[in-house]
Amino acid sequence: MRTISTSPESTLQLLLFIDDRPKAKDLVKDVENFLQRENDCLSELQVINVAGQPQLAELFKIVMSPALLKLSPLPRQTIAGKNLLKQLENCWENWKYQVTKNTFNHPPELAQNVEYMTQVGRLADEVFRLTQEKSEIEEQIRFKDRVLAMLAHDLRNPLTAILLALDTIEMSGDKIDPQMVARLLKHARNKARDADNMITDILEAGRGANAEFRTQRQKIQLDQLCHSVLSDFYFSKCLEGKMQKLIKDIPTDLPPVYIDQEKIRQVLINLLGNATKYTPEGGKIELTVMHRTSQKIEVSISDNGPGIPAEMRNRVFEERYRLERDDEAEGYGIGLSLCRRIITAHYGHIWVDDAIGKKGSCFRFTLPVY
Fold first, then answer.
1. 123: part of which helix (H) or strand (E)?
2. Edge-to-edge order in the sheet of strand 12-18
3. Which of 79, 145, 158, 294 yields a CA-CA distance of 20 to 30 A from 177?
4. Given this model, what pLDDT does residue 23 score?
5. Contact of 344 with 212, CB cutoff 8 Å
6. Cα–Cα distance for residue pair 183/313, rounded to 1 Å
7. How many CB atoms lie within 10 A of CB 103?
8. pLDDT-wise least confident of 18-32, 192-206, 239-253, 279-293
9. Per-chain mean pLDDT for the chain
10. What count of Cα atoms within 13 Å lies in the side-chain half-sphere of residue 207?
């Protein structure tokens, strides 16, 4: 940036914006010579190379170079293009007239004007930085809210199951069979382990949708995992309490899958838990596993509850999204966001449709074959 002034009390302030093209130097000389010839008008010229100071071009709203901006007297005026010198000659008489009208109102020196605009630009950058920091802090607060909400939602099932097992042992006294006691204690231990795994997974989910989700995948027989989840003592009690019927179609000749067993177990528990919650008393829940292609297995869990409107089916997998009908109760959306992250981490897909042939919802997800 360089300046040429024809008077210490400059009144016509001009900014010439150029770039690194060779012809720019010739243009600068032509403009300077023109101003020196027209010395009957007090003027000051400042040359700005936009290649080195693009922020000034942005501040002064210059969209192309070369460009000549009349900064003062007001109103501002910009001329630009290859015939810039010719345009300057055409504007000159009008600009001189504007100067004569402002003889007794000298503006600040041009360098001060440019410095002022530079400071404005710096302040704008600082405001942007602070706004970004504010957004990050707000996201951290939302992160804590997500963690608390997901802990309350996803830990309730295993904790309730542990209490149910212990209460059954305590209330039965000497009447309970030792084998049943051993089974209930094993169930309680498994649920405690599930709760511990959930805490780890929920903290992973709370890191945000873009955070890397770690899995420990290995070769697993999915049919065995499904039967293990369905034989869960707490799940059986939930079905029994609402007199719901479970229909399952799990082939025995399924190929092994390549998954993180505990995380997929959590997906099954979550989806089955939602199914029992939304299926009315005496209703039916169906679990079906199909070998769709040579690369994928599809698992579907359907219920005959109220269903999910078509326009909301993608949103139920968003973090903390709740259907309006569920504002006063636990609803789809808290655990489903974690389910989607788990399935996505396995290179699978999860979605929801209408239940086939009846009212309700059908959640489906795919997993890679080993």
1. helix 110-154
2. 2-5, 43-49, 12-18, 67-72, 77-80
3. 158
4. 87
5. no
6. 39
7. 11
8. 192-206
9. 80
10. 11
User: Looking at the domain assignment, is residue 346 inside a domain?
Assistant: yes
40 lies in a domain? yes
The amino acid at 105: N
User: Is 215 within 8 Å of 345 (Cβ atoms)?
Assistant: yes
Quick one: CA dihedral 353, 304, 306, 153, positive or negative? negative
pLDDT for 331: 43
Range of the domain at 324: 217-368
253 CB-near residues (< 8 Å, 6+ apart)? none
Quick one: 110 and 248 in the same domain? no
Q: Is residue 192 part of a domain?
A: no
CATH number of residue 54's parent domain: 3.40.30.10
Give the percent of the chain with pLDDT over 70. 78
Using 50, 70 and 90 to split pLDDT, how confident is the model at 3? very low
- Rounded to whole angstroms, the Cα distance separating 367 from 291 reads 10
* Average pLDDT of the residues in 357-364: 84
Query: In terms of C-beta density within 10 A (0-12 exposed, 13-18 middle, 19 or more buried), how is residue 144 classed?
Result: exposed
